[in-house]
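Dear U.,

For the methods section draft, I wanted the exact inputs and outputs in one place so we can describe them consistently. I've listed the two proteins in the order they'll appear in the manuscript figures. Please don't edit the token lines directly; just add comments below if something needs changing.

First protein:
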Amino acid sequence: MKVIVIDGQGGKMGKLIIEEIKKRMPDLKLIAIGTNSIATAAMLKAGADFGATGENPVVFNSKSADIIIGPIGIVIANSLFGEVTPLMAQAVGESTACKLLVPVNKCNNTIIGKQNLSLTEYISLTADELEKAVKGLR
């Protein structure tokens, strides 16, 4: 099973997601893809098994991923303050992978109906959905 976590900026969300997933499913292999090297480093430090940085790893790995996890901005061109290129957003959006997207109201993108939960609560909900998705794919 190929599970990738994509994040940018300082990688805080990706780091927290990986920490939570590794607590719940320590044997699940995770690929961390940062839009920049700082985000990748943070996710590797959190326990990701493999890491890569930039546009090409997002495009390449999205094609064969079973599950893609990240902030909602990974499917919106030029989000994360421009770190998500149009090609990255297209690759994630067109991927046949199950996408677990964490709602974040930033960069002029407002998710209508988004609950006012903390990042920690969203990470827990994301890990819950990942457990369901992994069970469904096995």
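Second protein (the one for the lower panel):
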Amino acid sequence: MAITFYDLCGRDERLRFSPYCWRVRMVLAHKDISYAAVPWRFLEKDALAFANYDKVPVLIDGDTVVTDSFDIMRYLDMAYPDKPVLGEGVSYQRAHFFKLYVERSVTPVLFRIVALDLLAAIHPDDRAYFRETREARFGMRLEDVHNPEQGRSQLKQLLAPVRDQLRASAFLDGEAPSGADYLLFGSMMWAYTVSLERLVDTNDPVDEWFKRMLEVHNAVAGKAITIRDL
């Protein structure tokens, strides 16, 4: 039975922008695993009742249901051990640390760059919910969160160690992409998918890396529908 996973969609069902779902998409492509992606929207909580979860991604593999993107990455490594992305022991701990760095530092700053673009990209029926929940999280209106110039300045500082790493290797995990690359790329792809805002300077090592990531695994990300296509 093919794997199924629930994947966040926007105002156009083909627009898939969740950073966490993009992690899963890239790992499935990395492992060359076939799957079916089910489009899901923020208010369709009942559709995930079977998983006792209210957000995506949710992955179904036969009788196994896995929630949370990092747990899904871990599950795919255990169930499909060829081409591991997180590894074991020290490698796994380092990947987990990098996950926390991306989620706690990078993703919130990316949100500042694209907040209003993201609001426009989601389905109209979801916008009131999105605004209410995100404004509660940030403690301010989305219009006040949205500050692309400040966000880019903060992102440049945050990505300094990433930039230095990419001067030494084509990908964060070496000469081919793996777990660390997919963790960061998921968030960068999220912003790129919904916004025309520049994230990093042209010819920055991070920009060059992002372009390479769009082309890996038969350009699974590069061929994706973005706001540019709508």
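Candidate sentences for the figure legend, describing the second protein: The CA atoms of residues 146 and 228 lie 20 Å apart. The chain has nine helices and four strands.

Thanks,
Y.
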